[in-house]
Design brief:
InterPro entries: Na/H_Antiport_NhaC-like_C (IPR018461). By secondary structure, the protein is mostly helical. Helices cover 74% and strands 0% of the residues.
Length: 468
């Protein structure tokens, strides 16, 4: 059986619905995993322990968890040195930080840190959090800015890991015989990357005040402005209160260059440098080196001794435990969805609808649907490109026309939608973590914005399909 029919949607659907009802992401995703085990006929105890081992016992998961661990330590060391507070105070001295300026800064910083969808939300969130807090910008808004400037930015640039990955996937279809041809195809798809482009346009329109907030985000912003509460009552920020207890040693004077700029530059330089030299951004290694640098500097300056350093690092790791647990269960539910054949089911009920006019819009919609319910974009790309490319080339008469390039963009944009706003997505979780936002609150406030862009994107692809 390649899929379980409509039941294959049940785990993800239950997880999403319960998350909105209970506001407890961890409990909701766990329920989704257990439902998936029941559908496949597995014993709950042994099936659960088995899925943990199979879903989490791989290099990809360990890599992401490693990044989260060192991000937690890095932020804890920032707290111990007083670096983030010093940066916020310096900016407040030089600039009159209004809510609008804080949002523009967050959006601009996210676009500049374009090279990694994992690094970007964590870096932007941690740098901007004290600034947006003082400007009374809600954590939900900061998480949205972090999320919108991660995956959506990555799909609009051909030289990111996303572009390189898709370039490899399209090789062998139609006229794309080599890796260079695949890269060229991704470059030609950029003008048709409606979802990524429109998302970036939207964040700046909102940040600049040209587009007013609406839906749950409007309520969150009104709460932050009027009460100063950047986090809603009863919410659980992804950064726990362990970090609040970390204070600089009495009399210790923070140096912005030593304690903030150099660690940040180490991360950026190593990530970009390894991408240029090795063709792969070594994000984890970048964070490890930055943390080692911080530890050495703070030890030399007697900000803490070795025992205190371990205690601070441990508190930093504790602060990201909730994110690590949610991410772990997200990987489990993604593995269950794969076993149930969720992607195969979606394809089976949609591929017969394809026509030259509707190809782009339906490709985007199918990829968006699949990625939202599986929480993965790259897996959707691997499944949908072998289906969409032959269809596009067939309708284009075997030539690499704009219809083919637009189809590549539709696949990438649709996959990005799910990666961008699914509560099961790793980058959505990392955005909540970086911003220190309640995860369900982030998903709930972001959803109307993401759906707005998705609907406009679908309409745009219908128009392009008619014109082409």
């Amino acid at each position: 059986m390649d899929n379980y029919g409509i039941l294959s949607l049940a785990p993800a659907l239950i997880a999403v619905i319960l998350a909105f009802i209970t506001r407890e992401a961890l409990f909701s995703i766990l329920c989704g995993v257990l439902v998936g085990l029941l559908i496949t006929g597995q014993d709950l105890l042994f099936g659960f322990t088995g899925i943990i081992q199979s879903a989490l016992g791989n290099a990809d998961f360990i890599w992401v968890i490693g990044i989260e661990v060192f991000i937690g330590i890095m932020v804890a060391f920032f707290q111990k040195s007083g670096a983030i507070e010093a940066v916020a105070n310096k900016l407040n001295e030089k600039l009159h930080i209004t809510p609008r300026i804080a949002q523009i800064m967050g959006a601009a910083l996210g676009v500049l840190v374009f090279f990694s969808d994992y690094f970007s939300p964590l870096f932007v969130g941690n740098v901007m959090r004290p600034i947006t807090d003082k400007a009374k910008v809600s954590r939900e808004k900061l998480a949205w800015l972090c999320d919108c400037t991660s995956a959506p930015v990555c799909i609009t640039l051909p030289f990111t890991s996303w572009g390189v990955y898709v370039a490899g996937l399209v090789v062998g279809f139609g006229t794309f015989a080599t890796a260079e041809a695949g890269q060229d195809a991704v470059i030609h798809s950029i003008p048709f990357q409606l979802y990524g482009i429109l998302t970036i346009v939207m964040i700046f329109l909102v940040a600049l005040g040209f587009l007013p907030d609406y839906g749950p985000m409007k309520k969150a912003e009104e709460r932050a402005r009027t009460t100063g509460k950047v986090v809603a009552d009863g919410s659980t920020p992804m950064l726990s209160r362990e970090l609040d207890n970390i204070k600089p040693k009495e009399g210790f004077k923070s140096n912005i260059i030593l304690h903030f700029l150099i660690p940040a530059l180490i991360v950026i330089a190593v990530t970009i440098g390894t991408y240029v030299i090795m063709g792969s951004a070594k994000t984890l290694e970048a964070f490890v080196l930055a943390v080692v640098y911080q530890a050495i500097v703070l030890l030399i300056q007697k900000a803490f001794n070795i025992r205190e350093m371990i205690q601070v690092a441990t508190e930093g790791i504790k602060s990201v435990v909730s994110a690590m647990l949610i991410l772990s269960l997200a990987y489990c539910i993604n593995a269950i969805s794969k076993t149930l054949g969720t992607s195969n089911y979606v394809i089976s009920v949609t591929e017969s609808w394809m026509t030259p006019v509707t190809l782009l819009a339906l490709t985007f919609a199918v990829c968006a649907f699949m990625s939202f319910f599986t929480g993965t974009s790259w897996g959707v790309y691997a499944i949908m490109i072998p289906i969409a490319m032959p269809l596009a080339f067939n309708m284009a008469g075997g030539e690499a026309t704009n219809l083919v390039y637009a189809t590549i963009a539709a696949v990438m944009g649709g996959g990005c939608f799910g990666d961008h706003c699914s509560p099961l997505s790793d980058t959505t979780i990392l955005s909540s973590l970086g911003a220190g936002s309640d995860h369900v609150d982030h998903v709930k406030t972001q959803m109307p914005y993401a759906l707005t862009v998705a609907v406009i994107t679908c309409i745009g692809y219908i128009i392009i399909g008619i014109c082409l």
